[in-house]
């Protein structure tokens, strides 16, 4: 029974399949479009073989050889060479700056900036090579530019007169001193003295330190305390260096004219910075005098005073001129060097004999030139040392003494040094200098 059912299914299946095939064949006998029928009959033309020379076998071999050569691996492409270097990315920097306070050292200020001890030592070594760190004063300023790790990139110390000492740290350490470009101008001023010369100059807007220069020059010629009654006219001509409107450094007097008790006292300073000035009375050359320190400030006078170190009242046997460490010190008159060395309290000293009875002493010096020796003659205005703070002193200064027969005398009043060592004055040349100075004063005041 089962066999008959299976056989019947196969018969039906074959019948259906045959019917489908017959139907498909019937459909395929419909006419085909002419264009499509032609396209079905198209065949590509056979390729034209190239002409050969002397046989196809040789030509075929040649073609095969070229084809094989062309199929060799191509060379690798080389990256183009770029001449320009990629930009160097600078690390971020931080800047710190402040002024130096009284009593501070460079190391203290650097520590306040957060700099490590090893870096502080390197900075002190670099800046100290160009600037005496003992000269640090309030008002000086320090600027530190640091990298992200706190190491110094540049350290700049700004000191007096617009001068800056800069230390640059990188692949190598470089220290340089940079001074501003200045313009030297000539200035004139006039003052009427009522109470004191200092007060008169200050009120007239003239540098009051010029009173020290005039006291040095005219102290042995004019008794300011007795002869000045008030109302005297003082006219001055000086040079000063400027950066814009700011004055840099100390000004230098070139001419002064002071009328006292019916007489005209005039002083002409030279242009060669020798400090040798010519003093005139009523137009006649009186003497030539050299200042011990040009441009210094008179910090202590002759006479009894409270000692700045010991605190008791003592006799001050000279005058003190406050000046920067290293400022040149000059002989005030021609003479012979009688002593170079150290004396108790005075520090390093140079003493010069001006004849048998008069001697000048220059104390607290930092150095003495190797060209200066005992027994050597020196001229007025010749450099014999530099300002220092050796011996018993609180700051750089020159202690200047004049001794007559071994006894100290007031250098700003006693004129015996000038009388004993007064050089010959060329009256014709001196008169020409005076005439020129008067003309410059009139022009500047006008």
From TrEMBL:
Entry's Gene Ontology molecular function annotations: metal ion binding; metalloendopeptidase activity
GO terms for biological process, alphabetical: proteolysis
Cofactor field: Zn(2+)
Domain M23ase beta-sheet core residues, every copy: 314-411
Keywords: Hydrolase, Metal-binding, Metalloprotease, Protease, Zinc
Domain of life per record: Bacteria
One Pfam family of this chain: Peptidase_M23
Name of the protein in question: M23 family metallopeptidase
Organism annotation: Gymnodinialimonas ceratoperidinii
Biological classification of the source: Bacteria, Pseudomonadati, Pseudomonadota, Alphaproteobacteria, Rhodobacterales
């Amino acid at each position: 029974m089962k066999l008959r059912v299976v056989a019947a299914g196969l018969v039906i299946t074959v019948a259906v399949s045959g019917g489908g095939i017959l139907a498909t064949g019937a459909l395929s006998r419909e006419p085909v479009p002419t264009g499509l029928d032609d396209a079905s009959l198209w065949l590509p033309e056979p390729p034209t073989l190239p002409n050969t020379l002397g046989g196809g076998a040789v030509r075929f071999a040649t073609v095969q050889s070229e084809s094989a050569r062309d199929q060799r691996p191509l060379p690798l492409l080389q990256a183009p060479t770029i001449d320009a270097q990629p930009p160097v990315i600078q690390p971020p920097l931080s800047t710190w700056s402040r002024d130096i306070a009284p009593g501070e050292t460079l190391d203290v200020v650097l520590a306040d900036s957060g700099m490590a001890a090893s870096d502080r030592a390197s900075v002190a070594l670099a800046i100290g090579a160009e600037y005496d760190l003992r000269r640090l004063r309030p008002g000086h300023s320090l600027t530190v530019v640091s990298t992200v790790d706190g190491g110094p990139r540049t350290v700049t110390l700004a000191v007096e007169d617009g001068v800056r000492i800069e230390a640059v740290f990188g692949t190598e350490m470089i220290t340089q001193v940079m001074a501003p470009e200045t313009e030297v101008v000539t200035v004139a001023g006039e003052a009427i003295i009522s109470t004191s010369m200092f007060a008169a100059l200050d009120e007239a807007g003239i540098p009051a330190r010029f009173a020290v220069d005039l006291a040095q020059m005219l102290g042995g010629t004019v008794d300011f305390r007795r002869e000045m009654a008030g109302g005297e006219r003082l006219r001055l001509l000086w040079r000063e260096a400027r950066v814009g409107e700011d004055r840099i450094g100390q000004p230098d007097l070139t001419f002064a004219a002071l009328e006292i008790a019916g007489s005209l006292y005039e002083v002409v300073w030279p242009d060669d910075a020798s400090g040798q000035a010519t003093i005139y009375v009523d137009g006649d050359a009186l003497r030539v005098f050299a200042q011990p320190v040009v441009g210094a400030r008179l910090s202590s006078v002759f006479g009894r005073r409270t000692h700045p170190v010991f605190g008791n009242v003592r006799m001050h046997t000279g005058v003190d001129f406050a000046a920067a460490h290293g400022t040149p010190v000059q002989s005030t008159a021609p003479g012979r060097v009688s002593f170079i060395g150290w004396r108790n309290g005075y520090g390093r000293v140079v003493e010069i004999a001006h004849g048998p009875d008069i001697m000048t002493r220059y104390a607290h010096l930092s150095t003495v030139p190797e060209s200066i020796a005992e027994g050597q003659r020196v001229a007025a205005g010749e450099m014999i040392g530099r300002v220092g703070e050796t011996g018993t002193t609180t700051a750089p200064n020159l202690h200047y003494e004049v001794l007559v027969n071994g006894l100290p005398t007031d250098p700003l009043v006693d004129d015996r040094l000038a009388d004993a060592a007064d050089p010959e004055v060329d009256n014709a040349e001196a008169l020409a200098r005076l005439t020129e100075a008067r003309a410059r004063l009139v022009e500047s005041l006008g």
